[in-house]
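Weekly modeling sync, notes
Attendees: AB, CL, MP (scribe)

Item 1: holo prediction request
CL wants a bound-state model with FE2/S2 (inorganic) cluster before deciding which constructs to order. AB pointed out that an apo prediction alone won't tell us much about the pocket. Agreed to run with the ligand included and paste results into these notes for async review.

Input as submitted:
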Amino acid sequence: MTTRETHPGTAGGSTGPAAHGGPDADYTPEQLAAMPREELDRLGAQYDNVEVLHVDPGPEPGSPVEKRAVRQVGLTFALAGLAALAFVVVYVGSGWFLPDWQWEITESGWSAIFTPVLGALMGLSLTLVGVGLVLYTKKLLPHETAVQDVHHASHFDQVTTGATLVGGLHSSGLARRKLITRSLVFMGGGLGLMLLMPLGGLIRNPNTGDPLGTTPWAEGVRLLRNDGSPIRPGDQQPGSLETVFPAVPGGNTVENADAATMLIRLRPEQVEENRPLEGQENFGYGDYVAYSKICTHAGCPVSLYEQETSRLLCPCHQSQFDVTQGAKPIFGPATRPLPQLPITVDDEGYFVARSDYIEAVGPTYWNRERI
Ligand code: FES
């Protein structure tokens, strides 16, 4: 676009209207309303001082070139819609949108590729949309090179600009090229659904049944080592720690990862120093205490025990918890104690839980208080 010293109505390089005092003075609204769109388009160009330098009208309607381009564009848009619908199918199977149905998630890898598959399908869909638009613009739209001088907008300008826009839509051939129109509708539907899918996460209450606040621990559930063997009070040395799991099916699998618990046998001097949290004085059994292994900062497994200082250490961000002070945090970013599991022994002398944890294990969240 260039600007030149010209006056309204004197189109550069083209013949303007014969007489004018401004387009609104030259033409009444009734005259404008009676003109066909092409005439308005042409007049608008003249009064806008638009000089068309080059016009490539695009492929001949109905020609083999046009038909081939229409098929290419339609196929691209249809594939974009299919990729978007595939995204929807995969997403719906996440269990967030339809809580009663979801893809079977196994440890063999589906859960690992779920998010990459979603990303790949969305990326493929949007890429195909872009490719389709580029193909449509390059192969089917008329191409025009024009220059224009700028002047103030008026009613005349508004009417003629509207005609120009409608003319652009008309020359796009969308109304005539049904295959592209249908593929656009199909693609738009798929893309719309794809973009709506993430709202599914807002529909389901993730804490229905309090899955974030409960673990498989319950009254009478034995404490098992990772190899499945139960534990008696005399099995551990003073000052030692054993990671234990609930004696339920899959108790030591990733599905019950929040149940991992540290069973600690205190040394005699630690027993004297032991100050359980208020209301939890009887949660231990003899010189044993059991605390959640899930860090209350960000959920890492607390895995280091320094018995000389009675400290449990979380390797992720160095939070430290004192096992003789109800596992209160004494260093690092964690702000609340590791929950303590109430334990006792059953008739056969093996350690069992007296109940589930009395509060949610792991990182603090909005409703950790369960009782
Ligand atoms: S997760 Fe344990 S300190 Fe951050």
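Recorded for review: The longest strand covers residues 50-56.
Action items: CL to compare against the apo run; MP to circulate these notes.
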